[in-house]
Amino acid sequence: MALLELQNLSCGYGEMLAVSNLSFTLAEGEILALLGPNGAGKTSTILTIMGHVQVKSGALLIDGRDATRLPALKRTEFGLALVPEGRRLFSDLTVSENLTVGGYSRSRNDEKRNLTRVFDLFPRLFERRTQLAASLSGGEQQMLAIGRALMSMPRLLLVDELSLGLMPKMVDLCLDALKRLNKEGLAILLVEQNTSRALDVADQVCVLASGRSVFTGPAEAARKDVDLLHSYTGAAA
Ligand SMILES: Nc1ncnc2c1ncn2[C@@H]1O[C@H](COP(=O)(O)OP(=O)(O)OP(=O)(O)O)[C@@H](O)[C@H]1O
Ligand SMILES: [Mg+2]
């Protein structure tokens, strides 16, 4: 059964439609890359899935259950967690404190276990656990944003613009971590400007342009026609 299913979903702000009639399914344990140029509606889609942007029509199913009108807090309970665009860390809190905030919905025992798991995934965060988030490098901040989301023990991680502003080495580190988490069973919805890198890790691909899907299908099909995909996403081939 699909972990997440969008059925002709339209969403937007006030009168304005940001995304129209979007449909895709994400199965348990899969990675779906959501691609497209600036303003295509990627963040709006992610925020709608998290319950922060208004659904205008269509439906959103989690585990086959209608979650279209489910409050945002409940979606966390259903196993969704967000790594937001721009990371949005608590800059005046330490690395450990940021992680603790991410695990607020879990018991103390879970918190300890999850902290160990995050520090095992990102040893750099352990080394910097007493440092303020604001003092971390961009790559370390992205690791912390991922770690904070993992603290709620999600089944589906939504990552918005993983590689934005990061050095290639840091992008590798973060992508490797996501691949490892995916091997352990975590489903991931990855929004990425870097089409090639996203295609390397994705099982499914959905490309948006001006709020509409222009390609939805297996990543294998997309990899066979990368030029076409680049023409959709606006990236250089
Ligand atoms: N809070 C908002 N209020 C009104 N319109 C918004 C809001 N946020 C986004 N939009 C509009 O919705 C459309 C889609 O924006 P969105 O941020 O989802 O695109 P995106 O694909 O994530 O772009 P980017 O690659 O630049 O992050 C744009 O036209 C944008 O101006
Ligand atoms: Mg965006």
Automatic annotation (TrEMBL):
It comes from the Bacteria. GO terms for molecular function: ATP binding; ATP hydrolysis activity; branched-chain amino acid transmembrane transporter activity. Residues 4-235 form the ABC transporter domain. The keyword Nucleus does not apply. Keywords: Amino-acid transport, ATP-binding, Nucleotide-binding, Transport. GO terms for biological process: L-amino acid transport. Pfam families: ABC_tran. The keyword Isomerase does not apply. InterPro entries: AAA+_ATPase (IPR003593), ABC_transporter-like_ATP-bd (IPR003439), ABC_transporter-like_CS (IPR017871), BCAA_Transport_ATP-bd_LivF (IPR052156), P-loop_NTPase (IPR027417). PANTHER family: HIGH-AFFINITY BRANCHED-CHAIN AMINO ACID TRANSPORT ATP-BINDING PROTEIN LIVF (PTHR43820). Belongs to the ABC transporter superfamily. This is ABC transporter ATP-binding protein.
